[in-house]
Amino acid sequence: MPRTAEQNEALRTATRRAVETAAVRVFAHRGYAATNMRQIAAKAGISTGAIYRHYASKEELFDELIDQASRGLGTVTVQLSSDGDPLSMIRSFTEDYVADLAANNGSAEFYMMVNQCVTTDTPEGTSSRLASAQRATWQAFDSLIARGQDKGQIAQGDSSRLTAHYFAMLTGITTLHVGLGEESAQPDVNLILRVLIGGSQ
């Protein structure tokens, strides 16, 4: 019995999602330049020919992932900019981030891929594509820290430096998780937050 249009669309969506998940993992481990469509197809468990029915090129696939990253940063910025208790919001954000890493659902590789794009600007122009969205996220977090300092929840000091140290820690934890896999230690939310609230809390 032939598939319905709805079934075909569902299959197409599932295959695209599998391709994107595979691409993130390969890009994170090999880097953009060393990755090709054959490797991504193999990771996704489909033929090389089949992958081209969904994406015409590695560049097109990568562009879609970068667009997803930009939209994701926008969502995070909105969340961090909302009203609420600053420390509770920071803790919730940290807990969600750590939970994503523990789930081994590709989030760690996605975060790492985005960090590689920003720091290496490969392919050229990628960093500038993400710069505005990333800057907005950092500014929202910076403002959240400043609000927490006003309430006595966050350690005093330059809020932008605290923001940089916090995200540097998340980047390091993510890199270790991707590199070591199951051998990496489960991140401790309270230890991460010490960079913001000090060791006494």
Report what the structure shows:
The protein has helices at 5-30, 37-44, 48-51, 58-81, 86-103, 107-120, 126-150, 159-180, 189-197. 75% of the residues lie in helices and 0% in strands. It has one domain (5-197): Tetracycline Repressor, domain 2. The mean pLDDT is 91. With 201 residues, it is mainly α. Helix 6 (107-120) packs across helix 7 (126-150). The chain has 9 helices and no strands. It is elongated and about 65 Å long.
Topology:
Layout: H1 5-30, H2 37-44, H3 48-51, H4 58-81, H5 86-103, H6 107-120, H7 126-150, H8 159-180, H9 189-197
Helix pairs in contact: 1-2, 1-6, 4-7, 5-7, 6-7, 6-8, 7-8, 8-9
Quickly describe the structure.
This protein is mostly helical and 201 residues long. The protein contains 9 helices and no strands. Helix 4 (58-81) packs parallel to helix 7 (126-150), helix 5 crosses helix 7 and helix 8 (159-180) runs antiparallel to helix 9.
